[in-house]
Amino acid sequence: MISAPEAPAYLDTLLLVLDLLGVFFFAVSGSLLAARRQFDLIGSVFLAFLAGLGGGVVRDLIINEDVPHAFANPLYLIPPALAAALVYFRLVTQGRLRRTLLVFDAAGLALFCVTGTRTALAAGIEPIMAILLGVATGVVGGLLRDVVANEVPEIFNRHGLYAVPALFGAGLSSLLWTLDLFNWLTAALVMLAVFAFRLVSFRMRWMAPNAARGSGS
Amino acid sequence: MISAPEAPAYLDTLLLVLDLLGVFFFAVSGSLLAARRQFDLIGSVFLAFLAGLGGGVVRDLIINEDVPHAFANPLYLIPPALAAALVYFRLVTQGRLRRTLLVFDAAGLALFCVTGTRTALAAGIEPIMAILLGVATGVVGGLLRDVVANEVPEIFNRHGLYAVPALFGAGLSSLLWTLDLFNWLTAALVMLAVFAFRLVSFRMRWMAPNAARGSGS
Amino acid sequence: MISAPEAPAYLDTLLLVLDLLGVFFFAVSGSLLAARRQFDLIGSVFLAFLAGLGGGVVRDLIINEDVPHAFANPLYLIPPALAAALVYFRLVTQGRLRRTLLVFDAAGLALFCVTGTRTALAAGIEPIMAILLGVATGVVGGLLRDVVANEVPEIFNRHGLYAVPALFGAGLSSLLWTLDLFNWLTAALVMLAVFAFRLVSFRMRWMAPNAARGSGS
């Protein structure tokens, strides 16, 4: 398991809780997508696991964890199961599936880009590459969810920014870590900022420039 | 390589044979899909490798095998090559591609959910997580096959159950292992049960509940 | 890190340069695809990273590198960033996106099937399995690019050969290595041959046989 020797034990516990919360948010986004696409309960459980655990597992494979967190700790089974149950019993949707999905996805993104960057840094990855892994942790679960369900991945949706908030959160986390300022308070603030950044960018329809300057205009 | 010290040597050999057989069945399902989609022989070989080896490689990456079985043992090259050849010379299809594909896919699923669970357990994974890895071994190859070929993955097909038989087989395997009752006979019985479960559920059009209760009715 | 003890140091440096060049070519293919699909700049950067680094990262995960090359060496960040910038400022396209994409993709394929095979061999993988990993290094980046962007993967495109040139290049590289004839000159020649093979096969519309003999005729 990963542990930063210099970090106080409470930070490890806190980050486990936040990581589980991130798994839960993405898992809900997976089950909501299954509901919208009229998949069955099994497909819902499957997308909950894929969306919730995909980002962290890919990150852990890359940083060469012994066994990915999610497969070493049975606690990680709970959030996807809970998510599928909540969606099944219609406790997280009031007929506005798209909007609810958006909020849960944003919350997962905010948590994962921070916990992902921190996990990579604690494993000894260089700060600049840890940013890349933090972004990957944030976007890969949602990407797998969308690719497997044959949706256009959210990351290519031009309605609001997606990877930019993740990059912002991962970059800030890596900077704070390098400056020895990464703690529960700063981590929580970064997460809140990423969450707000994502939702505001969606509401305001902020758009990134085109892939090729001037095209599509 | 994986080896369970307490297991008799014949069980390792038997499970290698069954694993190769599972690779073959999924590989045939990949080549049949290529034939149905009118891909070329190269695409057929490619889908045979992806469907046949995908599940086991992902499982081995997660349990952190030194090098995945399939890349450490050249024997694993034979089933996909054979599968593509059989489909090319039209030896496994009589004009009913969809049905033949279904049977081979079910056989692969039955073998892999058992061998996958056993491989994870032998690598020291906890029984409950080994179930998850067994299911993953069973469904990931077919999932990659379908995603890459731009099909709706079989796992979301509402016509019959897919992941449930795999979960049943992986769960039973893990239970038998924990009770020290996992041997060639019980393994074979579980595989047969999964195979029958999958095909009967398809024939009887058993359906899982919706992702959200009451929706789509 | 990988190093073949018997290889002169210049070969390692040369192969790093060629690998970075391959990343660049595939990264450009990713950004060009983003431009053709009218994705935004972020999508362009994302597809550049995925197409450029995907093949090598999957290869390194399979041969169980400590941390994949691309995440251990910040130099690998440069080609994708450069590629996205060149496409953004319209420096690599003159209105013929499809054709330009084809050439860059072919160049990446040529470089990666050789460097991928060599990396696997240097890590101690058996020559025959190293061929498979070389082909995977060549095709996986482009495959991920196409799957994520919801395109039919180039590997299934019946217009010209794709995996065959990669197999030819990986096979020849593995043979040269086994014969102790793998050096900068032979590596470069193999790359050129693969590049020419791919483009000529496209121009001449060479086609592989069908997945099932006689079908689709």
UniProtKB/TrEMBL annotation, chains A, B, C:
Primary location class: membrane
Sequence intervals crossing the membrane: 14-34, 41-58, 70-89, 101-121, 127-148, 160-178, 184-200
Residue span, Glycine transporter domain: 17-89, 103-176
UniProt-listed InterPro entries: Gly_transporter
Domain of life from the UniProt record: Bacteria
Annotated compartments: Cell membrane
Alphabetized UniProt keyword annotations: Cell membrane, Membrane, Transmembrane, Transmembrane helix
UniProt entry tagged with the keyword Transmembrane helix: yes
Keyword Transmembrane helix found: yes
Pfam families the UniProt entry points to: Gly_transporter (PF03458)
Similarity section: Belongs to the UPF0126 family.
Official protein name in the record: TRIC cation channel family protein
